[in-house]
């Protein structure tokens, strides 16, 4: 996996401990690009620490039980799986904010929390090493079904897309990009993140889209024909 100027090929290329940035409803996937507008002091400190080190942070959602409570505590329980991101661009706004872009490296399973004197939280992680490989079988993806679901969603919501770019995208780029930009809730985002492979992620995305269309607009099968 080449991310920015760094290469991540084995577990030895990854840290055992990372700072985590918990945000509900935000999804980063390996190979994806995630823009962030950071303004909270503890996370500004986290970015400072990452920039002076390996430039890696862990994007993760609060646990679903915390999200469903509607009021997140200062130190919420966290979802079991997140995604490592490398800071590949960084700008100061002049008003105390940072604008950064994260490139997805690999997913990880959250392990023990590490006690530090820092204002942000850090955890030991178990990375999904298979994510560092480009061995995903893109040919197993139901591209036709995925595009049909995407088109039906756009039409139902009176939205447009750059279809020329969509058609040029590889199955890997298409599935992960649509998953990250999808306007679905935290449970759906977590399901997409935890999908074991690209084929399953595409199937999950199609299924979620069909459910949303059926709930909101009626017969999804008619819209997908």
Can you describe this structure?
The chain is globular. α3 (143-156) packs parallel to α7 (198-217) and α5 packs across α7. The longest helix is centred in the C-terminal third of the chain and has 20 residues, at 198-217. The protein contains 8 helices and 8 strands; from the N terminus they run ββββαβαβββαααααα. It has 225 residues and is of the alpha+beta class. The chain has a 5-stranded mixed barrel. Strands 1-2 form a two-stranded antiparallel sheet.
Strand content: 15-25%
Largest sheet: 5 strands, mixed, barrel
Decide which structural class fits the backbone: alpha+beta
- By oligomeric state, this entry counts as single chain
| SSE series | EEEEHEHEEEHHHHHH
Strand adjacency order, main sheet = 3-5-6-7-8
How many DSSP-defined strands?
Answer: 8
Offer a concise description of the structure.
This protein has helices at residues 41-51, 64-68, 143-156, 163-168, 171-181, 186-194, 198-217, 220-224; strands at 2-3, 6-7, 17-22, 33-38, 56-60, 81-92, 98-114, 122-127. It has a 5-stranded mixed beta barrel with strand order 3-5-6-7-8. It has a two-stranded antiparallel ribbon with strand order 1-2. Helices cover 36% and strands 25% of the residues.
Write the SSE topology.
Elements: E1 2-3, E2 6-7, E3 17-22, E4 33-38, H1 41-51, E5 56-60, H2 64-68, E6 81-92, E7 98-114, E8 122-127, H3 143-156, H4 163-168, H5 171-181, H6 186-194, H7 198-217, H8 220-224
Parallel strand pairs: 3-5
Antiparallel strand pairs: 1-2, 3-8, 4-7, 5-6, 6-7, 7-8
Which descriptors apply to this entry?
8 helices, two-stranded antiparallel ribbon, 36% helix, single chain, 8 strands, 225 residues, alpha+beta
């Amino acid at each position: 996996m080449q991310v920015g100027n760094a290469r991540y090929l084995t577990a030895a290329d990854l840290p055992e401990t990372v700072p985590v940035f918990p945000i509900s409803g935000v999804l980063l996937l390996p190979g994806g690009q995630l823009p962030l507008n950071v303004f909270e002091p503890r996370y500004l400190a986290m970015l400072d620490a990452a920039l002076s080190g390996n430039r890696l942070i862990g994007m993760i959602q609060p646990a679903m039980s915390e999200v469903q409570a509607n009021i997140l505590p200062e130190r919420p329980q966290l979802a079991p799986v997140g995604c490592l991101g490398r800071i590949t661009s960084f700008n100061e706004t002049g008003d105390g904010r940072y604008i950064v872009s994260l490139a997805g490296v690999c997913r990880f399973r959250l392990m023990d929390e590490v006690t530090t004197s820092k204002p942000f939280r850090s955890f030991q992680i178990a990375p999904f090493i298979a994510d560092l490989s480009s061995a995903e079988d893109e040919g197993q993806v139901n591209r036709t079904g995925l595009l049909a679901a995407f088109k039906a969603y756009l039409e139902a919501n009176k939205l447009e897309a750059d279809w020329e770019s969509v058609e040029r995208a590889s199955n890997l780029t298409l599935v992960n990009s649509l998953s990250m930009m999808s306007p679905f809730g935290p449970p759906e985002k977590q399901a997409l993140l935890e999908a074991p492979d690209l084929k399953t992620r595409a199937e999950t995305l199609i299924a979620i889209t069909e459910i949303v269309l059926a709930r909101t607009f009626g017969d999804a099968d008619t819209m997908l024909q």
